[in-house]
Amino acid sequence: MNNHSETHAHHHHDHDHSELSETELRVRALETILTEKGYVDPVALDLLIETYETKVGPRNGAQVVAKAWSDPAYRARLLEDATAAIAELGYVGRQGEHVVAVENTPAQHNVVVCTLCSCYPWPVLGLPPVWYKSAPYRSRVVKEPRAVLADFGVTLPEGTAIRVWDSTAEIRYLVIPMRPAGTEGWSETQLADLVTRDSMIGTGLARAPAEIAA
Amino acid sequence: MNGAHDMGGMDGFGPVVPEPNEPMFHAQWERRAFAITLAMARPGGWTIDMSRFARENRSPADYLSKSYYQIWLAGLEQLMEERGLVTADEVAAGKPLHPRKDVPLLGAADVAPMLARGGPTERPAPAPARFAVGDRVLAKEMHPQGHTRLPRYVRGRTGVVELVHGAHVFPDSSAASTGEQPQWLYTVTFDGAELWGADAEPGLRVSVDAWESYLESAP
Asked: Which terminus in chain B has less CB density within 10 A, N or C?
């Protein structure tokens, strides 16, 4: 897949309607046909976009992780049945029907990929970023994850084993990053600010307190 | 099929390039392509496996030259054409030329329930599980022409069952319109050296989720 497609080239020309790409014209034609035939409801389309652009995203997952860090009983439920534990916080549904949470430790670091397409736990992380769906990530992370982590500026201790989860079925994986040092007594809200999207995929680590200091 | 979508272990694609503060969509047409693809699953009636196969079933050059949502669009057009919902002449004309089919519509009120329900794939088990956690299993050497979810990089390799997930819809049959045919699903974990040889990164282990018919007992 072309990571640097015309989507990027045209991103900078959104205002210029005289230069619509072939793809833009095709999508407009399709939407017109589907609407006129009565196959799609334009209000439903807007709702779908609004849901994933503004409501569902990695802040959901960050709350799950922060709660697991704070509440040992919740952590145990999350590791036992992540789908149910995540549903306790109200995050359910499409692309999160069967979730498994995998916990990072000093001995093992977990990384998630879908080499065959783009499987990703939507209810807790939202839609995947372009790099997650791209050929470089999908091809390399199962073979040379340390080199891929270096692309993200992440270096793990040599003694940490890397465990890659290729999401080839409808099971979705959520990484629970290690809780940073120096956060004893922090509230779940404070902790959630340390949990990045990438730390829940395994291509990043949770932020240290110093990184968010004002 | 042994298509370009099955990328695990390929070389030459270059570095991973994360985009700081990446927007959810990079162009207005991506928003619309995303939405019409999700919405058309209701009138179209296809399974997730059929839509995955429609996206991956193309020449490697075509797959690799399209962006992510361009592949979604190509898959959507193919699924609609196969069912006579929207045909190529209509896309070329940019307007309806043929009568609509009598199919259900995803209305605005249906969106939230549809997303909340999702598409669970677990089903009652048709038989006892053949494998248990800790069993050594061989991923079969197999090269079906149709849709499959056993990546090439594990075929012929031996791993260990790490998780047992219950019985799930079998994608190979679901994509081929021959029904759900649920099978036991396992997380099977392979040592890096088993997949990539002596040059594998030390300490690496990789798992795939594999349906029972993808696996054989290994000594």
From this structure: C
